[in-house]
Amino acid sequence: MAYQVLACKYRPQRFADVIGQEHVTQTLLNALAQDRIAHGYIFSGHRGIGKTTIARILAMALQCRTAQGTAERPTPEPCGVCDACTEIRAGNAMDVIEIDAATNRGIDEIRELREGARYSPARDKYKIYILDEAHQITDAAFNALLKTLEEPPAHVVFMMATTQPEDIPQTIRSRCQHFSFHAVRFQEIVGQLRSIAEQEEIGVNPAALSLLAEAGDGSMRDALSIMDQAIASAPLRDGKHTLDAAQIRSLMGTVSNQIFEHMMEAVQAHNAASMLEQAAQLLDAGNSPQQIARQIVRFLRNCLMARLAGQMSELLQVSDEESARAGRVAAIFSEEDLTRFLNSMLRTFDDLGYRQEQRFHLELGLLKLVHMQRLLPLEEIFRQLSSGAGSAGTSMPRLANASSPQPKLASPPSESVKAATPRSEAPRNSVPSPTSAAAHPLDGIFARNSTSISTNSTPAPVPVPTAPPVNTASAKAESPSPAALPVNVPVAGSDAKTSSSVNTATLRAAVAEALAQGGHETAASLFEAGAWEWNGSELRICIGASKTLLDLIYTTQAQQIVRESFRKLTNSSRAVRVESDGTAAANKATPPQASRTETDADGRPQDHPLIRHAQKLFRAEVRSVVYLRDPR
User: Is the pLDDT reported for residue 11 higher than 80?
Assistant: First the structure.
């Protein structure tokens, strides 16, 4: 007898032998037991999951000559030994006609089918038509079949198997019973493969079975086809074929997920060179960029499922070894990171289908994974600025991914740098060093993975946020602008005990530095940009922000830092009064809209220094403003 492939040799012959489709088999068994036979059935679902097989078993059960309830046939299952069952299993039954609808799809073939359906079966109880790939039938042919399906002869049963039920006209589907088949579960495929390997006396380890089941992708037939191919290439050990994972990977042209685990560790360490070196090894070994991208996508998907549901979840559909590997990678990334990685690699995989230089696009896609570690969603940036910038005793909120590197805020300049170039007196066209404490509040967020740069090196040009405008209507009459303040101002006034004087710019820089070191970066930036002036023995600091924002950033801890810095530099405990430049306007009896200042984000967002800085970084524009809180 000629060799028979495993998919045909172990094709189920009873409903109980079909795995993964209990919702279909149980319904059909109940219909057979109650003699509720429909004249039309549609079996739809993934390839290789038993649609045509169940259609044949149902035909055997309908044509079986052994009566139900007897010793030979106690259940509605076909007996499998009568002439009808034997002929249907062999494919030569006269009253069971299988038609390949992919080739017999025209109206002429359907007209012949309709003419033949009028005649009674030659021997058996029913005349059964099994239409495989029914979605290939043309619309005209379906229209010709419509009347026959609506009012068929009592002896005719139509069974249509398809992978694309949406292509079958609704008028046809409404006249048939539709059964949607499920993809076979991973563990069920593994169990079936193990059973077949034992019957065939094939040596196989669990890792190899998992690889075969994963390659089947929910299709039992695909898994058996790959297993048949693997057996043909497997070496003989002790007189029998033995399958192992390495041999199956070589046969399928795939690589171990261990190398993808190392690549993701390189991504977490921001080591782009190491990741590209590992990718080059795979490419030089003959693996195609599309195959590598496909495997990375599957690996990242499993890592995301392990992060969401745990590494023992059935969502992974991999072996225990692979699930442990996915769990280790999921532990070093957040859910958002893994989602971005998977989305980026899916786009890369799609691009490889129509790109000329596939290797370059794959390397570019892998580099994006490294750079994504430095990105932060725009919504998160403004959420931090609006809700967490000035919370009591805290700094800007950290990122959600605790395992990834936290934002590195720019450190304040050294004393020598401050003495040479005070931040408040720097020329407008100068570019601050990346290590300068004059960094904008947004700089701490965008510098998530920036490296420190020496003050002696030439920094790259970056956008310089301008200081927020100050209400100068009353300031001009009372005192000069901050830039025009005298260099040395007596701190103690007429107090004889304090005879020293202090440099206003030095005092401003020292207070800003102390606030930044204490975790109050936003307060440090606004204090540095504010207007400082002496009113007798009292130091008045006018902050370019609204009263609401000032209450948020000037917390009790920030007040203590300002007083301590003032006392250390002046050897005095004189009063320091901090106020908002919107205080005077807010005290007027004007509507809420009129009380908003140009520097308040509630008034004109495009004029707020934080918004202007974000616009320069992203080249964005403000199109609409939604007020989420009371501007007063």
Answer: yes
Compute the distance between CA of residue 349 and CA of residue 298 in angstroms, rounded to an integer.
11
Find the CATH number of the domain harbouring 218.
Answer: 1.10.8.60
- List pLDDT tens digits, range 16-40: 999 989 999 999 999 999 999 999 9
Number of domains in the chain: 4
- Structure token digits, residue 183: 């993809």
Residues 64-95: tens digit of each pLDDT = 999 888 888 999 999 989 999 999 998 889 99
Residue 128 lies in a domain: yes
Long-range contacts formed by 314-318: CB under 8 A, 24+ apart = 314/185, 314/186, 314/187, 317/185, 317/186, 317/214, 318/186, 318/210, 318/214
437: which residues sit within 8 A by CB, 6+ positions away?
410, 411, 412, 413, 423, 509, 512, 513, 516, 524
Q: Which of 165, 180, 195 is the last residue of a domain?
A: 180
| pLDDT reading at 587 higher than 50 | no
Pick the range with the lowest mean pLDDT from 24-28, 162-166, 507-511.
Answer: 507-511
Domain end call among 164, 180, 196: 180
Average pLDDT, the chain: 77
Coil, strand, or helix at residue 224?
Answer: helix
One domain, residues 30 and 103: yes
Q: What is the H or E stretch that residue 213 is in?
A: helix 206-216
The answer to whether residue 413 sits within a structural domain is no
Based on the fold, state whether residues 15 and 101 are members of the same structural domain: yes
For the chain, percent helix, then strand, then coil, each to nearest 5?
Answer: 50, 10, 40
Q: Are 193 and 152 contained in the same domain?
A: no
- Domain residues for the domain of 278 are 257-374
CATH of the domain at 285: 1.20.272.10
Query: In terms of Cα–Cα distance, which of 474, 407, 418 is closest to 441?
Result: 407
CA 177 to each of CA 127, 354, 526: distance values in angstroms, whole numbers, following the listed order: 18, 41, 71
